[in-house]
Amino acid sequence: MKKVMTISFMAVLAGCGGQGDGGGADSFQGNATVAQTGNASSTPSSSSSSTAAQSSSFLASAFQDGAGEIALSRLALQKASDADVKAFAQRMIDDHTQANNEIRQLAQAKGITLPTTTSAEDQAALDRLSGLSGTIFDRTYMDHNVTVHDKDVTLFRQQALSATDADVRTLAGNILPALQVHLLAAKAINGKVAPSAFLTNAFQDGRAETLLGNLALQKSSNAAVRAFAQRMIEEHTAANSQIAQLAQAKDVSLPSATGAEHQSVLDDLSGMSGADFDTAYMNHNVIVHGVDVFQAITQANSGTDPEIKAFAATVLPVLERHLETAVTINAVLEPSLLFAAFQDGKGEILLSKLALQKATDAEVRQFAQRMIDDHTAANNQIMQLAQQKGIALPNEPSAENALAYVRLSQLSGAAFDRAYMSRNIDVHAQDVGLLRTASVSEQDAQIRAFATAQLPVIQAHLTTAQQIGNRLNAAAQQSQ
Ligand SMILES: [Fe+2]
Ligand SMILES: [Fe+2]
Ligand SMILES: [Fe+2]
User: Fold this and answer.
1) Which residue in 47, 72, 174, 309 has the most C-beta neighbors within 10 A?
2) Which residues lie near ion ligand 3 (Cβ < 5 Å)?
């Protein structure tokens, strides 16, 4: 599953930008439901007043940011000229509306009052954007989205890892993957509509590649991973000096900070070793190069700045080779059970929230809710186990899950239902295999016990998925 899907990720991300302006529109469209609390594991009235203050301040600022995002995106629906920008705006409205509903629910349960006013920062952005139109509007709106989601990813990740209130941790952890995909989409579309953003993104990604490559040389003992890291350091250092020259000539200021998605991977990786390190590192490379290739194709084909267009055409084959190699290496890596189960669980939650928004069949919707509840509970157990054993877990979605999200978000009605269930059959069949093996041969007794306890849960998911999938397929055949 992982192997096939990550290769398609390259095709989806790299392929659609090449068809000119409208072609890229498919890549990141659609809606994801973001916030939904899983099983409540702490009491509404917190005993600690500092815990209450922390929760209150996080929920309030997350809610206010969401409201600002919705207001700006409504403006974008009226004013944006690019199809990808419009689709992105609609998704932000849908996702952040749902997220804010969930935040409101949790806040109410905890007696927290949420702000009803727009933040000064968002008001300033609204004022600025109201006066713009056409391409300049698109670029400014997408630029803003990169900045805002960069902050969101950092904030939500921090809360998902260390909020003292368990319900807030769960809420933040369940929203995070969607925000990470928003950030990737924002960067990809920004680099598509703005040649200068293509330069700044490529530069920031290139520098992160060098940092990550150096870490990989210290930590990895896999020969293919080490060779890849060495190549990333050399080729991105070379590309970045070209970008720096071009940026100077064009008066584009290059970012000095590391982006949130790179930083979160750097943070995760610092605690990992062995196959887990290699998998998290290569997975990130698949995602980042997929986004880079998407931007480079668009700039090389239809960029409006001749020099940046020429540079994009030169760097494109380099990035394509990086992506292809990253996909090939990633496909054969086998991370630990906790790593795989945690990342798969996050993916299940991400896609099942999409299903809650998009599915039309009652049983499919019910199934999606059960996936969210069960995988939230399982991931909470995994986090506890990992903490006891000092194991670092991946917080970036797998490239395969990011791809599935992109694809499923483009479908609707019965076609969505069938595709979502068919994916659930594949994923759960794979997970049953992993858990069965681990329940017999896992060395660590506690992890073996976890696998043994989890196996019947996932087997039951598989059985239900097969039943629903068969019924939907039969109905589709009958209606033909
Ligand atoms: Fe967002
Ligand atoms: Fe690269
Ligand atoms: Fe499941």
Assistant:
1) 174
2) 371, 461
